[in-house]
Amino acid sequence: MGNEKVTLKGNGRRSEPLSGKIKFPIQTRVWIGTLAIAFAVCLAAAAVVWLLPGSRRVARVSVDGAVVREIDLSAVTAEGSFVVEGVGGTNTVTVRPGGVCVSAADCPDQVCVKRGWLEGGAAPIVCLPHRLVIELVSGGDGNALDAISG
Amino acid sequence: MNRLRFAPLLALALVLSFSLSACAAASRTFFAMDTVMTVSAPLAGDALLAACEEEVRRLEALFSVTEPDSEIARLNETGEAALSDDTARVLGFALEEAALTQGALDVTLYPVVRAWGFTTGDYRVPDDDELAALLARVGWTRVELDGGTVRVPEGTMVDLGSVAKGYASDRLAALLREGGVQSALIDLGGNIYGLGAKADGSPWRIGVRDPKDPSGLAGALSVTDKAVVTSGSYERNFTAPDGTVYGHIFDPATGRPAENGLISVTVVGGSGLECDALSTALYVMGPDRACALLETLDGVEAVLIDDQGAFWITEGLKNAFTPMGAYAWATINWIQK
After folding, report:
1. B97: three-class secondary structure by DSSP
2. How many whole angstroms separate alpha carbon A41 and alpha carbon B142?
3. How does pLDDT run across B159-172, given as a tens digit for each residue?
4. Fewer C-beta within 10 Å: chain B N or C terminus?
5. Is B195 exposed, middle or buried (0-12, 13-18, 19+ CB in 10 A)?
6. What is the largest CA-CA distance in chain A?
7. Which residue among A30, A126, A149 places its CB closest to the CB of B192?
8. Chain B: closest CA distance from residue A7 (Å)
C-alpha cells in the first residue's frame, strides 16, 4: 500500500482534523461506492418485498399443483364468478373486492363451499376431490402465520 | 494490487446473487395420502423438492390400505406380510404408542371406520350389534410384529393412516437436511414440520385452528425445528339425519367417534411420527388421562382444548403459545411436568 496520501487542509494540526477534508485512496473510494450501491440495492429489494404485496391481495387458483389463474382481489370492483375445471368435476369460484370463495361445486363433500370467503389468514380453500386450492399469495394478513395445524 | 481491484465488484455480485436467490421462494404443492401437501424451502432446488414429493408417494405406496399392492393391503388380504424398514418402523412405533396409551391409539380400527363410511364418504351409523361384531376383530394386541414379518388373525386389518403423515414429515425433514437445507416448512395436510428456523432466524409461526369455526384460529405457536400436529373432529365429520355430528376420530373402546371431553389436541415435538400418534391418542383419552400422560413424557409439549372451551397446556409452551380470536380470554390450565 504505497499510495496512502492523506492530505490535511486547514490549520494543519494533526490531532484535530475536524475541519479537514480527507482524500481517500482510490481503492477505498471504490469500496465505499460499492457498499453504497449494495446498500441501495438491499433497500430497494426490501421495498419491493415488503411494500408492494401489502397494497395488493392476490389469490392463486391451482388444480393438482398447477396454477390456473391468479386474481388481484384488490383490483376487483364488483362480484363475479368463473368456473374452474378440477380433477373429475368443476368448482364455481366467486370473487368480490378483497375476497374469493367457492360458491358452488359438484364434489361430494362440499367442504370447499362450506369454507366460505377467503379474505385473509393463512388457511387456503381446498377441494380435495377436485384437487383445487385457492390461496392468498400476497396481502393476506394471516396474523403473520406461516402455516396452520389441523 | 491489481488482483484486489475487482474485489469490490465481486462483493457486489455476491450481495446481488444472495438477495436475488432469497427472493426466489421455492415451494411445491401436491396431492397425496388423501390430502394436499406443500413443501416450502427457499434455498432448495427443484430437484430436491421433486424428491420430497417422490418420497411421500413411495411411502403412500407402502402404507396405503386401498392400493392392493401395498404392504399393508397385502397384510390385510392374506394375514401375513414381509415389511420394508419404513413400514416395520412405523407399525412398530404405533404398537409401542398403543401400549403407552393403553390402546387409545389403535391401528386395527379400520373395519369400524369403514363401517361408518369414513373411507368411502357413504356415511351411516352402524347399530350396536354390528359394532360389537366389528369390535371383536379389533385390537392392537392381535398384531404380531416379529422383525420384518407381521401377522394378523383373520378379519383383523391394519391402517397406518393415524401415523403415516407424521412419519412422512420426518422423512422429508431428513431428506431436506441431507440436501443441505437449513430452513423449510413442511405442511402435509395440516401436519406441520418447521425445519430449523425461518430464513431470517425467527421461529415459525404456526396457527392452531379453532375447532368450533375451522376458518378461524384458536391461537398461534412459535416453534423452531419442531413438528406440530393437531387432531380435531372438525377435520372430517358428517351429520346424521337426526342432526348428530359424528367426527372421524374413533374411540377403540366403543367403536364410536371419540367424545371424551376434548375437541382439539395439538402436539409439538421433534418427531412428527410421535406427534401424529399422540395427537390422536390424547384426543381419545380425554383431558384427565391426557394430562396425566403428558406429565410423564419428555420432549413433547401439547395444547389441549376441552369441550368447555378451556385450554390445557404444558408449561414448556408458556412463551410459545398465544391464544387468539374467540379464545383470547379462555381459561388456561397449565400442565406441570
Report:
1. helix
2. 65
3. 999 999 999 999 99
4. N
5. buried
6. 89
7. A149
8. 22
What torsion do the CA atoms of B95, B101, B105, B109 make, to the nearest 10 degrees? 90
Cα A46 from Cα B94, distance rounded (Å): 47
**Residue among A117, A138, A134 at smallest CA distance from A55:** A138
Q: With an 8 Å Cβ cutoff, are B264 and A123 in contact?
A: no
The CA-CA-CA angle for residues B289, B292, B297, to 5°, reads: 120
Question: Rounded to whole angstroms, how far apart are CA atoms B187 and A51?
Answer: 27
Count of beta carbons in the 10 Å neighbourhood of residue B225: 16
Report pTM: 0.78
ipTM reported for the complex, 2 dp: 0.83
Q: CA dist B254 to B42, B104, B132, Å?
A: 46, 11, 9
A79 neighbors A104 (Cβ within 8 angstroms) = no
- Per CB-CB distance under 8 Å, the chain A contacts of B264 are 150
CA dihedral B51, B163, B265, A147 (to 10 degrees): 10
B241 close to A (CB below 8 A): no
Could you tell me which residues come within 8 angstroms of residue A80 by beta carbon, excluding any fewer than 6 positions away? A94, A95, A96
**B26 near A CB under 8 A:** no
Sequence-ordered list of residues with C-beta below 8 angstroms from that of B134, at least 6 positions apart, any chain: B111, B112, B115, B126, B255
Nearest CA to B27 among B18, B37, B17, B19? B37
Q: Which fold has domain B203-337?
A: T-fold (3.10.520)
A57-138: CATH architecture: Sandwich (2.60)
Helix (H, G, I), strand (E, B) or coil at B311: strand
How far apart CA A73 and CA B113 sit, in angstroms, is 41
**B50-58 average pLDDT score:** 97
Lookup result for grid cell 379462555: B330
Tens-level pLDDT at each residue, chain A (150 residues)? 445 555 545 454 555 555 556 778 888 888 888 888 888 887 887 766 555 544 578 899 999 888 899 888 888 889 999 999 999 999 999 999 989 999 999 998 898 998 889 887 767 899 999 999 998 887 655 457 889 998
What's the alpha-carbon Rg for chain B, to the nearest Å?
22
Residues of A with CB under 8 A from a CB of B: 27, 30-31, 33-34, 37-38, 41-42, 45, 49, 62, 64-65, 108-109, 115-116, 121-123, 126, 128, 131, 133, 143-150
Q: B216: which DSSP letter?
A: E
Q: Is B77 helix (H, G, I), strand (E, B) or coil?
A: helix
Helix (H, G, I), strand (E, B) or coil at A133: strand
